[in-house]
Amino acid sequence: MSKAEILEQLPKLTPAERFEIRVKLAELDGERWLDDDDPLTDDQKALLEARLADMDQHPEASIAWDDARKRIESRLGK
């Protein structure tokens, strides 16, 4: 299968299937996708990955960044 064919098929996959692919790519590539000066701990990275996976599996529970920012700013009194 060519790279173009793979890229064409990605949007057709379920969130769980895309997560499987991300895990496999991370396994193959290691941590190279991270910046060298990445300030996050391994626990923080794991939490972010888990939340991203949850977002992929439950997109209906997500909100747009603009809405999230407005909520945060209103809580902070900005």
Based on the model shown, name its key terms.
mainly alpha, 78 residues
Nutshell version of this structure?
The protein is an all-alpha fold.
List the helices and strands and how they pair.
Layout: H1 3-9, H2 15-29, H3 42-57, H4 65-75
What does this protein look like?
- It is a single chain.
- The protein is mostly helical and 78 residues long.
- The chain has one domain.
- The protein is 63% helix and 0% strand.
- The radius of gyration is 16 Å and the shape is extended.
Q: Major sheet, described briefly?
A: none
Give the overall shape: extended
Question: Any idea what the radius of gyration is?
Answer: 16 Å
- List the uncertain runs: none
What fraction, in percent, of the residue positions are helical?
Answer: 55-70%
Structural class: mainly alpha
Distance between the termini: 52 Å
Order of helices and strands: HHHH
- Domain count: 1
Mean pLDDT: 85
Q: How much of the residues is beta strand, in percent?
A: under 5%
- Strand count: 0
- How many H/I helices? 4
